[in-house]
Amino acid sequence: MHVRISSIGLLIPRPASQDTALTASIRSIDPASLEALPASAGVYRFLDARGTPLYIGKSVNIRARVQAHLRTPQERALLRATRRVDFIRTAGEIGALLLESQLIKKWQPPYNVLLKSAAPAYALYLPKGSLQPHVVDYEDAGRDRVHGLFASRRTAEAGWRAQIKRHGLCPSLLGIEKTTLGRACFAHQLGHCRGACVGLETPLAHRRRVLKALRQLDQYAWPYEGPIGVVENDGRLHQVHVVDRWAYLGSLSEDLPVLKLPNRTRLDVDTFKILSAPLAAGLLTRVDLQISRSEREIRSSTFAPHEDAA
User: GIY-YIG domain: which residues (predicted)?
Assistant: First the structure.
């Protein structure tokens, strides 16, 4: 008898037709392609009869993850359309995350929901002569007077408010809090403002600290002089993932010792989300890359570990 276990531990009969229908859906998939799947990290693709990706996923154990798909009744339509499953090995989870995001944007698989479009990035723009930064689209704003990098308008606003508090800036002068002329702002009453609103700090000194607070956010935009490499090694595969301005450009390995760089890279927020926090925390091994300017390429023999690398 086919059974399932309920949330309270009861054995409940499962209609045999459900298992039969799921098994029938899997029969169209080339068994050799399933047998070849490794129990290691990487990206896998469900392909239709023309070899076009229907779904792209990632896992630290490709074989186990694909087998989970094959046992899921809700994915019957995907399984029915699939003819084979292929994979690309990576040296770890970071490489799998980066490659999955890149391939989904490239192929736009119909059964993928997330990562299909490039999410917008946001920054703080300070108009000339103003003390009130505006949240703007990072790519559309240009680079003049733009500070920081944020995944949403909300995080941009929250990031700026955190800087205001951290630096003891005046919310009233920054247009965040309304106060009566000559009266201290509420932040000053709480000890979070140094008193520019009541003349305890000159406008010039306050403006200088505003600019300093904004410049500190620039480290999130791209804190490196040029492209960097992120190293992953699982004992069998050694890769250096090349990233420039939070755009994943590809991975160097024994199989791909040379990587051609594009003339222009466009920031990718998903890459930023994947790498920014672990890089800042020193959890990833970073290498500095030496670029052949004439050929715009990076070779696996031209990188050296960064002095802070683990």
Answer: 39-113
Task: Provide the phi-psi class of 129: left if phi over 0, else alpha when psi is between -120 and 50, else beta.
Answer: left
Question: Residues in the chain, how many?
Answer: 310
Residues 6+ away with beta carbon under 8 Å from 73: 18, 21, 22
- Is pLDDT above 80 for 147? yes
Exposed/middle/buried for 87, CB within 10 Å: 0-12, 13-18, 19+?
A: buried
Beta bridge partners of 124: 135, 147
Q: Yes or no: say if 206 and 195 are a contact pair by the CB < 8 Å rule.
A: no
Q: What is the mean pLDDT of residues 276-294?
A: 85
Nearest to 157 by CA among 143, 136, 186: 136
pTM of the model: 0.78
Separation between Cα atoms, residue 161 and residue 307, nearest integer Å: 34
Tell the burial category of 156 from Cβ atoms under 10 Å away from its Cβ (0-12, 13-18, 19+). Answer: buried
Q: CA-CA distance, 146 to 124, in Å (whole number)? A: 6
Q: With b meaning 16 or more CB within 10 Å and e meaning fewer, what string describes 215-254? A: eebeebbbeeeebbbbbbebeebebbbbbbbbbbbbbbbe
pLDDT of the residue at 293: 64
